[in-house]
Amino acid sequence: MTARSSGTWVLPASPAGGAEGGFALVELLVSLALVATMAALIALFIGQLRGFSATAERLAVAREAQAVSAYVEGLLERAKPLPLLSGRPAERRFLVGTATDVRFSAIARTGHQRQSLREVEIATTDAEVGAAISQVLRPRRFGVPVRGIAVQTETLLPAQARIRFRYLGWRGAEDVWSDDWNELAALPRAISIIVTLQRDGRTYEARSLAILHLSRPEP
Protein backbone atom coordinates (compact mmCIF):
# COMPACT_ATOMS: atom_id res chain seq x y z
CA MET A 1 0.00 0.00 0.00
CA THR A 2 0.99 3.62 -0.45
CA ALA A 3 0.92 6.19 2.26
CA ARG A 4 0.32 9.86 1.97
CA SER A 5 2.58 12.21 3.95
CA SER A 6 2.38 15.96 3.70
CA GLY A 7 0.52 15.81 0.42
CA THR A 8 2.96 13.40 -1.19
CA TRP A 9 2.40 9.72 -1.98
CA VAL A 10 5.28 7.58 -0.77
CA LEU A 11 5.90 4.03 -2.07
CA PRO A 12 6.88 1.47 0.57
CA ALA A 13 10.43 0.18 0.47
CA SER A 14 11.07 -3.21 -1.22
CA PRO A 15 11.63 -6.14 1.13
CA ALA A 16 15.25 -6.64 2.01
CA GLY A 17 17.06 -9.04 -0.33
CA GLY A 18 14.41 -8.93 -3.06
CA ALA A 19 16.83 -7.86 -5.79
CA GLU A 20 19.37 -10.39 -4.68
CA GLY A 21 16.74 -13.15 -4.76
CA GLY A 22 15.77 -12.22 -8.30
CA PHE A 23 19.36 -12.27 -9.53
CA ALA A 24 19.96 -15.62 -7.79
CA LEU A 25 17.07 -17.21 -9.73
CA VAL A 26 18.38 -15.93 -13.05
CA GLU A 27 21.85 -17.22 -12.26
CA LEU A 28 20.42 -20.63 -11.37
CA LEU A 29 18.53 -20.85 -14.67
CA VAL A 30 21.63 -19.83 -16.63
CA SER A 31 23.71 -22.43 -14.77
CA LEU A 32 21.17 -25.15 -15.52
CA ALA A 33 21.18 -24.20 -19.21
CA LEU A 34 25.00 -24.33 -19.29
CA VAL A 35 25.03 -27.73 -17.57
CA ALA A 36 22.47 -29.08 -20.04
CA THR A 37 24.50 -27.76 -22.98
CA MET A 38 27.73 -29.25 -21.63
CA ALA A 39 26.02 -32.60 -21.03
CA ALA A 40 24.75 -32.64 -24.62
CA LEU A 41 28.21 -31.79 -25.96
CA ILE A 42 29.84 -34.51 -23.83
CA ALA A 43 27.28 -37.08 -25.00
CA LEU A 44 27.94 -36.06 -28.63
CA PHE A 45 31.71 -36.29 -28.09
CA ILE A 46 31.42 -39.77 -26.52
CA GLY A 47 29.24 -40.91 -29.42
CA GLN A 48 31.82 -39.67 -31.92
CA LEU A 49 34.60 -41.42 -30.02
CA ARG A 50 32.68 -44.68 -30.16
CA GLY A 51 32.13 -44.19 -33.88
CA PHE A 52 35.83 -43.51 -34.44
CA SER A 53 36.75 -46.59 -32.39
CA ALA A 54 34.37 -48.83 -34.35
CA THR A 55 35.72 -47.46 -37.64
CA ALA A 56 39.31 -48.09 -36.51
CA GLU A 57 38.44 -51.68 -35.56
CA ARG A 58 36.81 -52.29 -38.94
CA LEU A 59 39.83 -50.88 -40.75
CA ALA A 60 42.15 -53.10 -38.70
CA VAL A 61 40.15 -56.22 -39.61
CA ALA A 62 40.10 -55.21 -43.29
CA ARG A 63 43.88 -54.69 -43.23
CA GLU A 64 44.32 -58.10 -41.61
CA ALA A 65 42.43 -59.80 -44.45
CA GLN A 66 44.33 -57.78 -47.05
CA ALA A 67 47.70 -58.69 -45.49
CA VAL A 68 46.96 -62.43 -45.72
CA SER A 69 45.73 -62.06 -49.30
CA ALA A 70 48.92 -60.19 -50.27
CA TYR A 71 51.11 -62.76 -48.47
CA VAL A 72 49.52 -65.70 -50.33
CA GLU A 73 49.77 -63.76 -53.60
CA GLY A 74 53.52 -63.31 -53.08
CA LEU A 75 54.03 -67.00 -52.29
CA LEU A 76 52.12 -68.12 -55.39
CA GLU A 77 54.07 -65.75 -57.63
CA ARG A 78 57.25 -67.51 -56.46
CA ALA A 79 55.91 -70.97 -57.36
CA LYS A 80 58.55 -73.24 -58.91
CA PRO A 81 57.99 -75.74 -61.75
CA LEU A 82 58.96 -78.67 -59.53
CA PRO A 83 57.04 -81.96 -59.19
CA LEU A 84 55.15 -82.18 -55.92
CA LEU A 85 56.62 -84.63 -53.40
CA SER A 86 53.17 -85.92 -52.52
CA GLY A 87 52.42 -86.91 -56.13
CA ARG A 88 53.70 -89.66 -58.35
CA PRO A 89 57.07 -88.79 -59.92
CA ALA A 90 55.88 -89.80 -63.37
CA GLU A 91 52.95 -87.37 -63.18
CA ARG A 92 55.11 -84.26 -62.72
CA ARG A 93 52.41 -82.08 -61.27
CA PHE A 94 53.83 -78.69 -60.29
CA LEU A 95 50.69 -77.36 -58.61
CA VAL A 96 47.48 -78.99 -57.43
CA GLY A 97 44.59 -76.83 -56.31
CA THR A 98 40.89 -76.72 -55.54
CA ALA A 99 38.61 -73.86 -54.61
CA THR A 100 39.69 -74.07 -50.95
CA ASP A 101 43.31 -75.27 -50.98
CA VAL A 102 46.44 -75.24 -53.11
CA ARG A 103 49.81 -77.08 -53.02
CA PHE A 104 52.98 -75.99 -54.79
CA SER A 105 56.74 -75.51 -54.27
CA ALA A 106 58.21 -72.09 -53.55
CA ILE A 107 60.86 -70.20 -51.64
CA ALA A 108 59.07 -69.46 -48.37
CA ARG A 109 59.92 -67.62 -45.17
CA THR A 110 60.89 -70.21 -42.56
CA GLY A 111 62.23 -67.95 -39.81
CA HIS A 112 63.49 -64.50 -39.00
CA GLN A 113 65.22 -63.26 -42.16
CA ARG A 114 65.45 -66.83 -43.43
CA GLN A 115 63.95 -68.35 -46.56
CA SER A 116 64.12 -71.90 -47.89
CA LEU A 117 62.60 -74.08 -50.58
CA ARG A 118 59.40 -75.67 -49.27
CA GLU A 119 56.38 -77.52 -50.53
CA VAL A 120 53.62 -75.14 -49.50
CA GLU A 121 49.98 -75.87 -48.75
CA ILE A 122 47.48 -73.04 -48.13
CA ALA A 123 43.97 -74.13 -47.17
CA THR A 124 40.74 -73.34 -45.40
CA THR A 125 40.60 -75.70 -42.43
CA ASP A 126 37.85 -76.48 -39.95
CA ALA A 127 38.55 -75.41 -36.36
CA GLU A 128 36.57 -75.71 -33.15
CA VAL A 129 35.51 -72.07 -33.40
CA GLY A 130 34.93 -72.08 -37.16
CA ALA A 131 36.89 -72.12 -40.40
CA ALA A 132 40.45 -70.77 -40.44
CA ILE A 133 43.19 -70.23 -43.02
CA SER A 134 46.28 -72.36 -42.42
CA GLN A 135 49.70 -72.84 -43.99
CA VAL A 136 51.86 -75.98 -44.03
CA LEU A 137 55.52 -75.86 -45.09
CA ARG A 138 57.18 -79.20 -45.89
CA PRO A 139 60.97 -79.24 -46.26
CA ARG A 140 62.29 -80.32 -49.65
CA ARG A 141 65.21 -80.01 -51.98
CA PHE A 142 64.77 -79.73 -55.72
CA GLY A 143 64.07 -83.42 -56.20
CA VAL A 144 63.60 -85.07 -52.81
CA PRO A 145 62.17 -84.38 -49.33
CA VAL A 146 64.54 -83.29 -46.57
CA ARG A 147 64.82 -85.43 -43.46
CA GLY A 148 65.49 -84.07 -39.99
CA ILE A 149 63.63 -80.76 -40.49
CA ALA A 150 60.20 -80.44 -38.95
CA VAL A 151 57.08 -79.63 -40.95
CA GLN A 152 55.89 -76.12 -40.06
CA THR A 153 52.17 -75.52 -39.55
CA GLU A 154 50.85 -72.01 -39.00
CA THR A 155 47.44 -70.35 -38.80
CA LEU A 156 47.40 -67.31 -41.06
CA LEU A 157 43.94 -66.16 -39.99
CA PRO A 158 42.03 -67.63 -37.04
CA ALA A 159 38.33 -68.37 -36.62
CA GLN A 160 35.70 -67.33 -39.17
CA ALA A 161 38.17 -66.88 -42.04
CA ARG A 162 38.14 -68.53 -45.45
CA ILE A 163 40.23 -68.42 -48.62
CA ARG A 164 39.07 -69.20 -52.13
CA PHE A 165 41.11 -69.81 -55.27
CA ARG A 166 40.39 -69.73 -59.01
CA TYR A 167 42.88 -70.75 -61.67
CA LEU A 168 43.50 -69.25 -65.09
CA GLY A 169 44.51 -71.91 -67.59
CA TRP A 170 43.83 -72.62 -71.23
CA ARG A 171 41.68 -74.78 -73.40
CA GLY A 172 43.21 -74.88 -76.85
CA ALA A 173 44.00 -71.29 -77.72
CA GLU A 174 41.46 -69.90 -75.24
CA ASP A 175 42.20 -68.82 -71.66
CA VAL A 176 39.66 -70.14 -69.15
CA TRP A 177 39.05 -69.81 -65.39
CA SER A 178 38.28 -72.89 -63.28
CA ASP A 179 37.85 -73.83 -59.62
CA ASP A 180 40.58 -76.48 -59.69
CA TRP A 181 43.99 -77.17 -61.20
CA ASN A 182 45.48 -80.59 -61.82
CA GLU A 183 47.44 -80.16 -65.05
CA LEU A 184 50.60 -82.15 -65.72
CA ALA A 185 53.93 -80.30 -65.85
CA ALA A 186 52.34 -76.86 -65.89
CA LEU A 187 51.53 -73.95 -63.66
CA PRO A 188 48.42 -71.81 -64.17
CA ARG A 189 48.83 -68.41 -65.78
CA ALA A 190 47.30 -66.68 -62.79
CA ILE A 191 45.45 -67.47 -59.56
CA SER A 192 42.65 -65.37 -58.13
CA ILE A 193 42.66 -65.13 -54.33
CA ILE A 194 39.69 -64.10 -52.19
CA VAL A 195 40.04 -63.91 -48.40
CA THR A 196 36.86 -63.45 -46.34
CA LEU A 197 36.80 -62.72 -42.64
CA GLN A 198 33.79 -62.40 -40.34
CA ARG A 199 33.89 -60.23 -37.23
CA ASP A 200 30.99 -58.91 -35.11
CA GLY A 201 28.40 -59.80 -37.71
CA ARG A 202 30.28 -58.12 -40.56
CA THR A 203 31.98 -59.79 -43.53
CA TYR A 204 35.27 -58.38 -44.79
CA GLU A 205 36.76 -59.36 -48.14
CA ALA A 206 40.19 -58.91 -49.70
CA ARG A 207 41.03 -59.82 -53.28
CA SER A 208 44.32 -60.19 -55.10
CA LEU A 209 45.66 -61.78 -58.27
CA ALA A 210 48.89 -63.79 -58.44
CA ILE A 211 50.57 -63.72 -61.84
CA LEU A 212 52.75 -66.81 -62.27
CA HIS A 213 55.76 -67.06 -64.57
CA LEU A 214 54.99 -70.17 -66.58
CA SER A 215 54.74 -71.82 -69.94
CA ARG A 216 52.22 -74.15 -71.49
CA PRO A 217 52.38 -77.86 -70.62
CA GLU A 218 55.47 -79.61 -71.86
CA PRO A 219 54.91 -81.79 -74.97
Structural commentary:
This protein has 219 residues and is α+β, with helices and mostly antiparallel strands. The chain has a domain at 61-211. The chain contains 1 helix and 12 strands, in the order E-E-H-E-E-E-E-E-E-E-E-E-E. The chain has one helix spanning 18-77; strands at 3-5, 8-10, 79-80, 95-97, 101-111, 114-127, 130-139, 152-157, 161-171, 174-178, 190-199, 202-211. Strands 3, 4, 5, 6, 7 and 8 form a 6-stranded antiparallel β-sheet that branches. It has a 4-stranded antiparallel β-sheet with strand order 10-9-11-12, covered by helices on one side. A hairpin with a 2-residue loop joins strand 1 and strand 2. The mean pLDDT is 81.
Count of separate DSSP helical elements:
1
Report the uncertain regions. none
- Rg over CA atoms, rounded to whole Å, is 36 Å
What overall geometry do the principal axes of the alpha carbons give? elongated
Work out the helicity level: 25-40%
Oligomer: single chain
First-last Cα distance = 124 Å
- Kindly estimate the percentage of residues that lie in beta strands according to DSSP: 35-45%
Q: Report the count of strand segments.
A: 12
> Sheet with the most strands?
6 strands, antiparallel
Order of helices and strands: EEHEEEEEEEEEE
Q: How confident overall, as mean pLDDT? A: 81
Structural class: alpha+beta
